[in-house]
Amino acid sequence: MTRITCVHQGFELYGSDRSFIETVRLIRAACPTAWIDVVLPRTGPIVAPLEAVASRVVIEPLWILRRRTLPRLATIGLLTLPFAVGRALGRIRSSDLVYVNTSVVADYLLAARVCAGRSIVHVHEIPEGAVLKALKALIRWSGCDIIFNSRATERAFAMPPQVRARVVYNGIADPGRTKPMTYDGSRPLRLLMLGRISRIKGQDVLVEAIDRLPAEIRARIEVRIVGSAFEDAERERALVAAIARAGLSDRVKLHPFVADPAPHFLWADVVTVPSSLPESLGRVAIEAMAYGIPPVVSDIGGLPEIVEQGRNGWVVPPGRADLLAETLTGIVRLPASWCSYPAAARERYRTVFCEAAASQAMIAQLRLILDNPGGALVHT
């Protein structure tokens, strides 16, 4: 029996978690008789949907490189690293294929070098500075095959030509429901921001942009910010305080993380992804387009690979609340100027980012390991 191990660093149901679930579903569809172990660092909302497709979900410690935990990992955490690498090595040796979701799962990347040709790492992040250098070195040392989720991610990691790598955009499941253009200026524009509250996502930029709007435009917009901070209640409190200080509590409403964001998407006219730091791709923007909702995204990382400015959405410079406010003002005042965007957004999703578009390329890369261990990926 073919044995496949899929490793993920998360346990929630944010974008990277949902992408992992969809990849495991893809692997199950391609290998219906395989034994598939999913390894997670702890239990959480992600477990239930994985149990529907995996043979077994295993909860065990992983050595995960996160900014918040780096000081601990560099000291007392080093004592646990040999045990973590040993566990990972045991699983790799007993597997025909090991799929490691993201480059921060250090124990599996370290162990992969011992069993060459069995592991593939799917890179979903664009770190900066010393973290980027460390992850690049770790991936190269591991000898893993690589899937990058965008051209921007591939450029950031800048692997030499001999490294076996390929870009495959994330495939997003079709929600089966689309949202026709209903905004004509006669009611407030419904603007949605969905995602983890963090320094990367730009919730603070959005709040500042709404504060900068002319009073008559601010009165014609309703904003939902949906999400929670990752083990950082202080960041959530700071966002609440910033909204209150700006006098925007009647315009900007915070909603907690939800496992199923469909009701929020169906409420929205426009979705915004005002990221301040590079997003490797931008799942929320793609999900919005799947519903036929045009997104406003930052011109950073992989986001401009999703949106075609002036055709199916808007692209603004990152961190520029003034220019985001200017774009939102035009959206509110001139709905006729973007009446074609919803249909164009849906078409962009259907042709580039749907599951069918991604699945063939993804499975082809995994098959190169299953059918020919150690075989080279095509570099594109």
UniProtKB/TrEMBL annotation:
Coiled coil: none annotated. The keyword Transport does not apply. Transmembrane segments: none annotated. Pfam families: Glycos_transf_1. GO terms for molecular function: glycosyltransferase activity. InterPro entries: Glyco_trans_1. Keywords: Transferase. Residues 190-334 form the Glycosyl transferase family domain. This is Glycosyltransferase family 4 protein. It comes from Methylobacterium planeticum.
